[in-house]
Amino acid sequence: MRLDDLAMDNCLKCSLCNAVCPVLAVHPLYPGPKRLGPELERLRREGLSTDTEWVEYCLGCHRCDLVCPHQVNVSEMIARAKATHRKPLVRGLRDWWFARPGLLGKLTTILPALSNFALSMKPARFLMSKLMLIVPQRKFPSYTRPDLRAPVMTGKELERVVFFPGCFIRYNRPDLGRVVIDLLERNGLAAEVASTECCGVPAMANGDAAAARAAARANVKALAHHVDSGLRIVTACSSCGHMLKTGFSGVLQDDKEFAGAAQKIANNTFDLAELLMAQSDAGKLNIDFQNTNLRLAYHAPCHQRSQGIGRPWYHLLRLIPGVTVEDLDAGCCGMSGTYGFKQEKYTVSMEIGKELFSSIGAARPEMVATECATCQMQIEHGTTFKAIHPAEILLQAYDERCSG
Amino acid sequence: MGTNSYDVVVVGAALSGLCAAGAAAQRNRKVALVATGPGSFVNGPGWLRAQEILRASAAPELREAIAFYCELARLAGCPFAGDLSTARYLPTVLGDFQSVALAPLSLWKAEPRDGISTAIVGVRGLSIFDENFMAERLTERARMMSSGCTYTARQVPLSREMGVPVTTLRVAELFDRDHGFRAELIDALRTAASGFERILVPGMLGMNSSAAQIAEFQRELGCPMGEIPTLPPSIPGLRIFHRLESYLHQIGVELYRGFPVDKVVIHDGLCTGLRVASPGHPLHLRCESAVLATGRRTANPLGGEFAGCDQQMRPLTSTGSVIARNLFIAGPLPHTDGANHGNVLHILTGYRAGNLAASTRGNHAAR
């Protein structure tokens, strides 16, 4: 018997998952994780038709999983139901693209300037909202030609690690990728950039099981030999990290060829901050920070919380002299990757974000630090505050004296 | 430096774990609290029954422990009323009274009062709260107890889309988030309250609200008001959990939420750390001492080796030897009798274990 078969019976219907669900808090008609997860799962297992559009409204934030006293994998059950849900044609088409940010990135970065121009044009955005049901209010991130520098061998004795950049860093922010590599190097780690595909989180979120499996297989193929030779994998995007740690092994658990390798990858994947903290515990963290006067608010992305690694970024940022950090702990931002771009879900997305927006307003920081790219987009969309990846702040703190 | 190193690591967020973490943190220890969700006390009202107090009355630290808990709850914004030596009757959704020694203020205010005309105000469409049934039963029960309190049922409609059925969870969420909803609720309750000296409402006044926020609500309403807890999840119970958890966070307790401890690392009779079953690879928390407050029904990370504990709350093997000198057991884990020892046992053992852990140095003492 598989673990999740047991997990369904572990649901005692205590409704704590409903108490923490961000969607249920803002949408009175949403049936909630308890109903969409373990309750309907019983009927689904019996082959009864329980298809409902509501499964599309699950953010995949995993807050239900984290609060469950009996470790029921509520959101995984909903994700599986999502994968069998039949969508209307236009939304199906839109979600096919949303499930493939890697493909989108490859195409747009052939001529990045043209793509950015087209994506920012009012008439194009209007057409996208009409034809693709993508909200015109949101800005698309701009695309850049992929330019992830190979590691600079400075002659120092560096331990090798593998950097899994993910689509956002690869196609939108290769400069952030270089920040990550630089940060690792200053802490005794030489990062090699993995030639990997999209991690597959967008595919799962958009109910595209085949694309998620294809992404997981391709990535396992690309990463397996690295972990076999004893290297650790590092991610700087919390959703990629979450996927590498749980998703590959979840998606491929029945795949004889890949299940073992997927598990090995999960065991050897580290979030960037988690890895830096491990360096710190080994006495290898470079704490040569310059005094940096900065008041920060930190937002922990849902997929950071679901990795169960504590709050490494919060503690790292606090090591910089002069920096004050407030941990907002104000719930989910509501963006959930492509979710916030969808016309029919935009209002829900913004309503969920309200609590975070108002807590940022109350903290009045100089900027918000959060490692998830779409959390950053949502914060900048819903408030007047700038949101950046904490790695940028950390790297800058090494150089503060030179630049200031 | 060691980021995942703590003086005290507490496992479990029932009242025992929360009290242990609070007690250790108040003694300036660096504390971590690891938990997969709250303890099952959130399914209940969160009050302390007189019977539980009686059962624990032999414990020398009872008075001290309850005083500690009341202070912790007060600091967290959910003050308790009552004391150890008196008992009041508080109404339940089943139209009965329970004998309670201490309760959160909003529940305490629902005690029967002689000659006070009380309306029990339900919300239209709300599940598990039947004001007619309760008013009839409570009036009858009050008469049997020779109390002159009478109850009348009233119901208020709410205009917003509330879902079907309406749950106290939904009302509480709106209460917390939406100022406009609170204003609407006040208007509706005020109409229902006219002609009465007091109203009792279902426990629904916010999952995160402080006593001050509830008092402010009552001031605007202009009528004395009490809450009757519903099941489950009980909003007053959840409120205590949320307030205590966020207070602990605020005083520096590091919260590890979502994953269970699957191993207690023990070397030479000392617990050196705990292994958290995080996805991918486990998270190791090092500690000087630890408190296990995992409860009886959840997995006990000590496994079959554990067979009870000694006077100092240290775990014992079946042959009576101490498993680890710096490891303490709180909550109902050692009680195999199946009885419900309730919130008082949690508070008492949590407080003791937290203090014992705070004054114990493990093998890193030379650090």
Secondary-structure topology with pairs:
The complex is a heterodimer of chains A (404) and B (367).
Chain A (H helix, E strand, L loop, with lengths): L2 H7 L6 H5 L1 H5 L6 H13 L17 H5 L6 H11 L4 H10 L2 H8 L3 H9 L1 H11 L26 E6 L1 H7 L1 H12 L3 E5 L7 H5 L3 H20 L3 E4 L2 H14 L7 H9 L1 E3 H10 L12 E5 L3 H4 L6 H6 L5 E5 L18 H18 L3 E3 L3 H10 L4 E2 L1 H14 L1
Parallel strand pairs in A: 1-2, 1-3, 3-4, 5-6, 5-7, 7-8
Chain B lengths: L4 E9 L1 H12 L4 E8 L9 E2 H6 L6 H14 L4 E3 L5 E4 L5 E8 H4 L8 E7 L7 H14 L5 E7 L11 H10 L1 H15 L4 E5 L8 H11 L3 E4 L6 H16 L3 E4 L3 E7 L2 E7 L6 E10 L34 E3 L12 H17 L9
Parallel strand pairs in B: 1-2, 1-14, 2-11, 7-8, 7-9, 9-10, 14-15
Antiparallel strand pairs in B: 3-6, 4-6, 5-6, 12-13, 13-14
What do these coordinates show?
The complex is a heterodimer of chains A (404) and B (367). Chain A is of the alpha/beta class and 404 residues long. Helix content of chain A is 53%, strand content 8%. Chain A has a 4-stranded parallel β-sheet with strand order 2-1-3-4. In chain A, strands 6-5-7-8 form a 4-stranded parallel β-sheet. In chain A, helix 8 packs parallel to helix 11 and helix 12 crosses helix 22 (390-403). The model of chain A has no long low-confidence stretch (mean pLDDT 91). Chain B has 2 domains: 5-75 and 242-358, 3-Layer(bba) Sandwich (FAD/NAD(P)-binding domain), CATH 3.50.50.60; 83-231, Rossmann fold, CATH 3.40.50. In chain B, strand 9, helix 8 (211-221) and strand 10 (225-228) form a beta-alpha-beta unit. Chain B starts with a strand and ends in a 9-residue tail after the last helix. At the A-B interface, helix 2, helix 3, helix 5, helix 15 and helix 17 of A face strand 2, helix 6, helix 9 and strand 11 of B.
In short:
The complex is a heterodimer of chains A (404) and B (367). With 404 residues, chain A is of the alpha/beta class.
